[in-house]
Amino acid sequence: MESLRHINTLILGAGAAGLFAAIHAGGDTLVIDHARNPGEKIRISGGGRCNFTNTRTAPECFLGANPHFHKSALARYTPWDFLDLVQRHGIAWHEKTLGQLFCDGRATQIVAMLVEEARAAGATLSLETALVEIDRDESSFRAVIERGGRRETIRAARVVVATGGKSIPKMGATGLAYRIAEQFGIAVTETRPGLVPLTFPDRFSGLSGVALPVRAQAQGPAFDEALLFTHRGLSGPAILQASSYWREGEEIRIDLAPDGQLAEALRAARRSDGRKAVTTVLAQHLPARLVDAWAAEHPMPGNMADQSDRAIDALCESLRDWRLVPAGTEGYRTAEVTLGGVSTDALSSKTMAAKTVPGLYFVGECVDVTGWLGGYNFQWAWASGFAAGTAIAQGG
Predict the structure, then answer these.
(1) Across 171-175, average pLDDT
(2) Above 60 in pLDDT, residue 1?
(3) How would you classify the pairing of strands 360-362 and 337-339?
């Protein structure tokens, strides 16, 4: 026989957004997750140190069909609010480049903090627990959950869906949120991998491991960060950022000398090292293996003394406007986020509640709001979880 339990709020997913919603939703809240441990994506993030927010968070750092939807939640829960929570728990942190904040220690400190806060707020956590089915009648939601072979029916006035997207399926990502949305008649926009390496079969295998600072751009803003050649194609922060704006068949543009000093340096070398080969001088400014590969496709005959200003300018222009068409991406297997998701047209930007299904909320990655690399997606998880949780606590 299935047991029956009545609660105020059922939260599906014990990740960043789900735990944060639980912290603010008040008591009589049950958080379930099929994983053995809470916050698994938090644990592996930032090389195990969790890039938990970004001080440069701004609306333009997020993608979605509605470029204004996320403004409300992000304005009401800022990076400084989360940093205050981190400091109150005595978690040491540091800032890296571009506003990225990391733990000095391990990412598990953030997980422990969230679990502690959720339990202090009156939430119960049930791990290794699966959602079997969910529906709704006029008064409440009915969810059947299963743990250890035993099933239980939950009656909840409110349900928060915080099960994430499709990225990193080995961590348990299933796309459950989208199925729940569609079950309740809520639109889901096209989903695709974001913050993901781009593939170029067999093209760059000889350059695998080479890295350098670049400016990379698809059909969106340009990103000045590192590029990494892999045996499958291109990766590194600059490529991951650009990938979120890339579509199949489109080209990407890469500036291999983004500081703008290369032409001047080559002209200086023509005066001081005129007998040296162009590739020898170029390898003083770019990785040698990259220069060799570039020269194989773009012959650079003669020594530096043989190069006219026009030849130097042409070389630099080609290096600073390298155009490539990727074959594809590495997919959800390595994607850090899922682009697209639950349509923001169907949600309240203030509360994250579904407009047509009273008591149903969607937060975090499953929503059609995707941040840049560097802590922005965690900030969206905190902000959207806070929006839903506080709305529930206030009787919304």
Answers:
(1) 83
(2) no
(3) unpaired
Confidence of residue 170 (pLDDT cuts 50, 70, 90): confident
Place of tokens 């939807």: 69
Give the helix/strand (H/E) hosting 293.
helix 288-297
Distance, CA of 23 to CA of 117 (rounded, Å): 6
Copy the structure tokens of residue 149.
């072979």
Given a contact cutoff of 8 angstroms between Cβ atoms, the answer to whether 12 and 32 are in contact is yes
For residue 389, how far is the Cα from the chain centroid? 22
Give me the phi and psi of 142, to 5 degrees please.
Answer: -120, 120
pTM: 0.95
E-assigned strand segments in 119-232: 123-126, 129-136, 141-147, 150-161, 192-194, 198-199, 211-217, 222-229
Find how far residue 197's CA is from the centre of its chain.
Answer: 13
What token pair was written down for 233?
Answer: 């194609």
- Token pair, residue 61, equals 């750092």
Strand order in the sheet with 93-95: 51-54, 100-103, 93-95
Q: What are the start-end ranges of the E strands in 78-179?
A: 93-95, 100-103, 123-126, 129-136, 141-147, 150-161
| Rounded Cα–Cα distance for residues 263 and 162 (Å) | 51
Q: Which two tokens stand for residue 396?
A: 């919304």
Task: Give SS3 for 275.
Answer: coil
Residue with tokens 């609010």: 81
